[in-house]
Protein 1
Amino acid sequence: MGDILVFVEHKDESVRKVSYEVLSAGKELKNFYSSRLYAAVIGCGVERISSELKKHADFILTVDEEELRDFVSENYAYVLSQLVQKYKISVVLGSHTGYGKPVLCTLAALLDWAILADLTGFEILGEKILFKKPFFGGRIVSHLSISGDTNAVLTFRPKSLKTGEGDFSGEIVRERIEIKKDERIRLLKSERKEGKKVDIQEADFIICGGRGMKSPENFRILEEIAEIMGGRVGASRSVVDAKWRDYDEQIGKSGKTVSPTIYIGCGVSGAIHHTMGIDTSKTIVAINIDPNAPIFSIADYGIVDDLFTILPLLKEELKKAKEQT
Amino acid sequence: MKILTFVKQILDSEAKISLKEDKRSLNFEERFSLNFFDEFAIEEAVRIKEKISNCEVVAISLGSKKAQEVLRTAIAMGADKAVLIETERYEILDPSYTAKVLSAFAQREGFHMIICGERAMDDENGVTGALVGGYLKIPYVGSVVRLEIEGEGKAVAESEINGSFCLYEVTLPAVFSVRKGINEPRVPSVTGVMKAMKMKIPVLEVSSLSPPTSKTQIESYDFPEKRPQVKIIEGATPEEKVKKLITLLREEAKVI
């Protein structure tokens, strides 16, 4: 395996946490293969972002162009393909997110490389690397390999890799690339829905409401708890189908797969459709009045009691706990 | 206007799955269903067809003989034609293999739009649409929540990217992958179902589309690690239970 390039994602002028996760995977591969680790920062006004990465890669390739202000995956993929050719990269890594996925797929097609997507880890076995990937909603885990010297694009599921300490003294390289802007696709406008809240797939704390929440108004206390913890509110499918919450909060098979450090399910029964989306969470807490709710078979801790008594108490205790730290 | 929609038959989420002894392959109960997200793709294609004149919707599936079933669902929902690209059996395929075969078919068939679901629930890759766009060198928009045809050869697509809603204007031909919420898929009408049952579905051999060799392999399968048994927190009062929970989260799980 030759040199490695990580596609760095950024938001609000800083590097997204998912990219640190991928950079630490890059570092592990780099150490094993004694190759070089490059980070690619692409966009407009991104120079300050590059300086955040000095400890995380050998070279930070910065492409800062007005034409890249709007996110158009075709243009980003084109820039990456130019970097790949210039630096003779043989593996490109990124996150399996709304930004990473279209850019890296387009890149894999442009370069005609192999692609493995939504990986949750890897294992180095002699000369071979086995990549871990869940199938069938996490019911089965597979171990995948790439043939011989095949160059590849790999995307990793957010929060499935550990972030490590950076110990590089990386060099920032300003790249000038003439952008062949794809005229067939144009961003007309972009609107941030969630303000500055963390993405649900990146959140360390998720408190999820199910039918047991009884009404959309009752989600307010979940919002308050999420805010105290710097996390997000999630929703079960039935709650989304009933239009109590938006689809982008839906967790489970037909929604999002999340892996927070703490997941708290409130009045969530825990049908397989839902638990498929949470079983990679670190600690699962379930609060439900029904001791036979299936969610207890996947939870680490359970409270069998009335939600509306527990939640205000939980809010106060979490607030105290947060203030102590 | 010609719209292609890719539909996939997947192992039903309730089907029993077990590992063969060598862990290199799976045993599964023969229960299949139409991939959840593909229903939204079929519905969206049919809605466009209903809005404009002279529009044809063609559903395509890469799968085993049994995958004809999902193509019949597409016909019942309003697609005009269906084509099965037949593989030997149901299995998880390399993502670029799938995308190359579908691209080769699309190129041969001709089209203005390709609409597909944002991911399949068996392999969970969610990359086919973007790869097809890349192989065919045409624009791609993913996670589409709204799609409108704008005059001659243009479409406007709203896409949800990490919590932002981005509105793109796209020159056709192009590929769109759609997510839940873009529409409410219809229940097929009786006449639709009758039509679907009678329809002859042409079958193409994969080999006729010069499939590439897969560059990735599945070496083995495993079950995920089981989570430990739940600890139900007992306490005389709700206050006590909550206090105990916080202590456990702090001292045992070490997560706060």
Protein 2
Amino acid sequence: MKNLYLIAYLDLKESIRAKWFLVYSLVFGGLIALFFIAGVTESQVMGFSGLSRLLLMYIQITIVILPIFILITTVRSISGDRDNHILEYMLSFPISLKQYYWGKVIGRFITVYIPVLFAMIIAIVYGSIKGSPIPWNIFFLYTGLLFSLSSAFLGIAFFISSIVKSSEVALGIAFFIWIFLLAFIDIALISLMMQQRLDEQLIIFIAMINPMELFRVAAISLFDPELTVMGPVAFYILDSMSRALFLFLSIIYPLALGIFFATIGFIIFKKKDLV
Amino acid sequence: MINIENLTKKFGTNISLDNVSCDFNKNDSVALMGANGAGKTTLIRSILGYYHPNSGKVLIDGLDPIKDRIKVLKNISFVPQLPPPIKLSIEELMQYISISADVDKELIKHYSDEMKLDISANLNKSFFKLSGGMKQKLLIAISLAKKSSIIIYDEPTANLDPKARDDFYRLLKQNEDEKILLFVTHRLEEVKNLVNRQIYMDMGKIVSDEKF
């Protein structure tokens, strides 16, 4: 276990020093700061106001940028180390592949999750100082959703990192996956598919297996489920499933997806030539 | 003891090792030579357990370096040809080595001093920001501090100045007893005072194996 923690700790330290981490933290922290400066908490649009509105805006932007940030920064984790011969040297020490791989996963998870969580905490603290009521139910739901979404894309990123030999190819695949999943959220291709009168079960199925769509629907489900901003599939899902069950699914499914992909990635990493 | 038996490794259609068999025993100090692409690095990496062979096997003291990598790598020190761009600081790198391989940090400092490398002044410096020679000296110091019974050097003196090379040879002389030393090199004259065996590889095969 000590080697697992050692790898996680060193990966965390290395990541925190990296320039991408600075940009990553500034983007999420900056978003919250920007919302406060822009007076989002004082405005009221379509029934949302105060911190609820701020957190909703934060989460909607996060849906788009968090996955690509995680994919781009993580996908080179193992393939990059392989590319520049770091893996060749670091694995010449008696450390198991399991400890190395999962240590990297844990270290990287902490790195990507802490800034997005911290940005929300800043919002809560600043909002409470300004006297806004704290929407704890939304805060805890979003904390769970972000945890789950981060796991999903981290798992996918480690999977890609394990299967490809070059970090350039890994980046290309990561970008494609992001665009692909983004296209299949409610407001994009799914609406088009409905227009084309494709089988509704198929459309719902496509929506439900997309962790970004689940995240999006879950993020707005605490508000009025009849809101038109949700999109037709979101409306259908929330109409046919209890909200509690859907929220449970929207946290468990991406988490399981992330663990699944990370595990497949590990099996491939173990079975393939290391360098 | 390293036992390589009918080892074949292919990358696509390219045969990198073609049915290679050889043994390395205690007190063997070997210069592994050959043109680029001859299979030297593939052989070294197979010993380190990085490659899954297409056929044949590698055994280190009777153990498979892939299945028993922790036990096997406890006894192997390795210095690559080009120091990798590790972003950890020297302190962190030493921490990694000290915890994973149970290497005494003081011993790393001791051998660094012997190699005329002052690591105390550079502990917080990122490894990849050191000069090529400093990186190589540190990797050599680590390899010696690990007290392994098998030491593998891939062109170890490529970045070293003549004085540092002398320090390296002196330290190796002091530490070579009861060990297997493997030098991948293109220049025999550089290690000829250290080696007692010369293996020449070509097209994935061992074409000559001389002991002297």
